[in-house]
Amino acid sequence: MSTATAEKMPLSAHLREARKRAVRAAVALLIGTVIGYLTSDLVMDVLRAPITELAASRSASLNYDSVTGAFDLQLRIAVYSGIILSSPVWLGEIFGFLTPGLTAKEKKYTFGFLGAALPLFVAGCLTGLYVFPRMVEVLTSFASSEDSTILQASYYFDFVFKIVIATGIAFVLPVFLVVLNFIGVLPARTIAKAWRVSIVGIVVFAALVTPAADVLSMFFVAAPMALLFLAALAIAWVHDRSRGYDDSSPIDRSRREAPRIDRSRSSTTEGTVTTAPSSTIDPSSTADPTSTTEGSRTCSA
Fold first, then answer.
1. How many domains does the chain have?
2. Do 232 and 112 sit in the same domain of this protein?
3. Is a pLDDT exceeding 70 seen at residue 284?
């Protein structure tokens, strides 16, 4: 659907197209959910691997707190897997419906953002899957070897899922910096001034996500995030240099982009004073009023 066709389409045609795209996205989500349900045992094997290693040295196991707990967890895994597996389809349907209303510049920014954000998000999620077994090992090591570690299955799944998603989002944050720079909100100089705070924040986040005794896990999370931040700073700096932006704030930048006023012409215009034509003043009319009164009295006498 071209832009010209989208402008001529009535509201009913837009609604019909939205319904068709929603149906295709729902079918893809259903197929992905079925595939996720069939492969849920493989996902559980990945999640159960740290517990199995922990059980070799102490009593540790997953616990279902209800009769339907195992089925509920398997169904949640199937739904989440279906959303991930069908994401190329429903993302394509969403942007296929929205892009005809965008300008060429907005399309370039949108597809550029998606082309950079999606691979980084996948890389962040894979990094989260790599570090979560070490997190489970370290966090459970605070208990005594004489104690039993019984983990609730639904809570354990939520814990791993949040870690994986948080790591994926952290890898996408530099892309948001580039987008804010390209739309003129965040100049490169502001990003450069905050590099110390950003690096400290990255290290603190890596330490929280990977509370392992060895520094290797924290390095595997912090190093890519720091490199991505530096890459975002370099892209923003090159963009500002190519556009001639050297100001440190968007306000100064907007002032610089504002049209210049011809000061000489404006000063000449302001200096010109238009006066109304004045009549010739008789010097006798400026005489003393008292003399005029005395003269009138003499005439009357």
1. 2
2. yes
3. no
